[in-house]
Design brief:
4 strands; 2 domains; 6 helices
């Protein structure tokens, strides 16, 4: 059978045209569509990857913030515990100091009350001794206790010597009628005893001494001369102080016959 080259050429040409048409109008759009789809998928994958990366970054940041928060919370808890401990210790110290202060205050109050009681007992004892002495002297010798106290004071004055006499003499040299020396007594001295004391002072210090008299019952049967801060005094309380001095009991025990 002979070959019809015209028909073969026509068929070949038709095939080539068909291929070109398919490539031009079918295959290329399909390729373009596939490429576009691939680009879209690639973009979506890239966006997903970016989203995933952001999610990882956010997760890392969240975990970092959690760690920082846990560290801050731990630090705050530790600081709060330390502050609570310090405050507890401070309150305990203040409580102990308050208790100690209250105890010390009570002790001081008891000591003050005891001292006041002793002072009151001593004062009343001195008053009783003064009253009894006045009565005994009055009954036995018909001489008032005031006069006896005045005579004892004058003897003490005349017995001064050395530094005591010099110091009191300098103080009396500085007195004047405007600022006289002060003689206080537990009782009102009569004029005769005023004169006797003035004479003893003038004789002892070799010059007239400006002198003012004052009654002071707290001296308990005594007489006190004061000038420029210097004093010469005698009273029953001196003897009572000696009786109440430490070691008296030991001295009395040592004095007992064996």
């Amino acid at each position: 059978m002979p070959i019809d080259w015209f028909t073969v050429g026509a068929q070949l040409l038709n095939f080539i045209i068909l291929v070109w048409l398919m490539k031009r109008f079918l295959y290329q759009p399909v390729l373009d569509a596939i490429a576009a789809r691939e680009r879209k998928i690639a973009a979506e994958l890239a966006d997903a990857a970016d989203t995933q990366a952001r999610a990882h970054r956010q997760q890392d940041e969240f975990q970092k913030k959690n760690r920082v928060f846990d560290e801050q919370r731990a630090a705050l808890m530790h600081e709060a515990r330390d502050a609570a401990k310090a405050e507890r210790e401070r309150l305990q110290l203040e409580a102990r100091e308050a208790v100690d202060a209250a105890s010390a205050q009570r002790a001081r109050s008891l000591l003050n009350e005891t001292q006041q009681l002793h002072a009151e007992i001593a004062r009343r004892t001195q008053d009783q001794v003064f009253d009894i002495s006045r009565r005994v002297l009055g009954d036995l010798a018909s001489v008032g206790l005031e006069q006896q106290a005045c005579e004892v004071f004058i003897r003490h004055l005349r017995a001064l010597d050395g530094a005591a006499l010099l110091t009191l003499g300098r103080a009396l040299e500085a007195v004047s009628e405007a600022r006289p020396a002060l003689l206080r007594s537990a009782f009102e001295l009569p004029a005769a005893q005023h004169a006797a004391i003035r004479a003893a002072l003038d004789e002892t210090f070799g010059q007239p001494i400006a002198l003012a008299f004052q009654t002071a019952p707290e001296l308990v049967g005594g007489i006190e001369l004061s000038a420029q801060g210097q004093k010469l005094a005698w009273s029953i309380s001196h003897y009572l102080d000696a009786l109440s001095s430490p070691g008296l009991e030991e001295r009395l025990c040592a004095a007992k016959p064996s």
